[in-house]
Amino acid sequence: MSRTLGLLILNLVLVSFGFSSPSLGSRSILRSFNDDSGDPHDYAIELNATNFDAVLRETPATYAVVEFFAHWCPACRNYKPHYEKVARLFNGADAVHPGMILMTRVDCASKINTKLCDKFSVGHYPMLFWGPPSEFVGGGWEPKREKSDIVLIDDGRTADRLLNWINKQMGSSFGLDDEKFENEHLSSNVSDTAQIARAVYDVEEATATAFDIILEHKMIKSETRGSLIKFLQLLVAHHPSRRCRKGSADVLVNFDELFPSDIWLEPKQEENDGKNELGSFHICGKDVPRGYWMFCRGSKNDTRGFSCGLWVLLHSLSVRVDDGESQFAFKSICDFVHNFFICEECRQHFYDMCSSVSHPFNKTSDFALWLWSAHNKVNERLMKEEASLGTGDPKFPKMIWPPKQLCPSCFRSRNPKNYEVDWDRDEVFKFLTGYYGKTLVSLYKDKTILGKNGIDAALEDLVVSTNAVVVPVGAALAIAVASCAFGALACYWRSQQKSRKPRRNWS
User: How far apart are alpha carbons 57 and 450 in whole angstroms?
Assistant: First the structure.
């Protein structure tokens, strides 16, 4: 009984945001739910009455397919391989088209699911439904209902026919033989501002991946310890994801135990890098990293991804800090990249740009515009290198940002020969605060406001206004108490938090 309950809890955590777990590995976790059946290729997510609403409410997928079946039904057993062929395209860390469709199954032969199956008027097996995930939450389906966003899939008896049905609904051309990163469905339309909304998942992914890299390479030394503390403080106050703010606070409060200040002075303790202890602290939740990218996904396996997600995180932080924190944020980010970004050349270039700043930043706009300018300098350098070496992503070439399609008011004039632009910096700052602030979390808000306690959850999870700071009160107090052990750097941060008047944006 306890094992079953544990698997159900893991299942909920796993599938809510991408079907993988950093602690046990995406494949082993995904398959562990089917150990009893011995089938190592189950990609469809098993749901039941206890986790049905929660999983469908939290998934980032645009659409969901729910198959109602009975484990004793021979036709259902024969249909399962067909369903799994389609599910492997969309589910799991190795999904070919991640974040688009959540493929799920509900066993109506299990007594716990009797009422759930009745709500959807299940009259035969297997029975498949299609719709936005939120429409399944707390809902149902009736054959005589004229208008419903939940649609009965009436032609999905084989994998080919099911995928053809899906393609007609989405206007897509997915194929059963599609392989990862070898598809033509990636959107590279830079004028589509809705693209950035999906990046909130990539910001979480980049944050968790960065800390995985830090631990894997044992990068927390006596000389780097302080810079990591400062960056964690910045994340606690201004990360766009509530889960990452909370996880960062958990690590920060326990930092002295995880990484004692004198641990690196003892040669015999060099192997103790805190990784085992930190395994119980998940910087952005147990389900992150998920193993795939959404906004930052490249058309090739070795392009975009982590570096893109990290840049989005840094821009997001830059537009959220208050004026009085801008210099602290600048120094924290510069030190973090210098000490913990694993690419030597990139790290040195960024450090040189940080070192060239001669005056402290006194305003949020000054710091945000400096980071934007630094990113454009990086893009301009990489544009030339990638053009000469052919190493760029053909669907996502480096460009001067933002392009005119996204912000025409940002441009006063432009010289097409040398890429020089006469920018309206006030308009650029307005664009940055909107793009990396409110727009970044808009899809997250849409997903979260649904459901029984959705509005409260949305208010807790989001920083809707780019200058609003939402810090969990308990975490802030705990950090304030613990920060005395961190020295002057932490005390500075604590004083900033005390002087700021916390406020929530209820719009």
Answer: 7
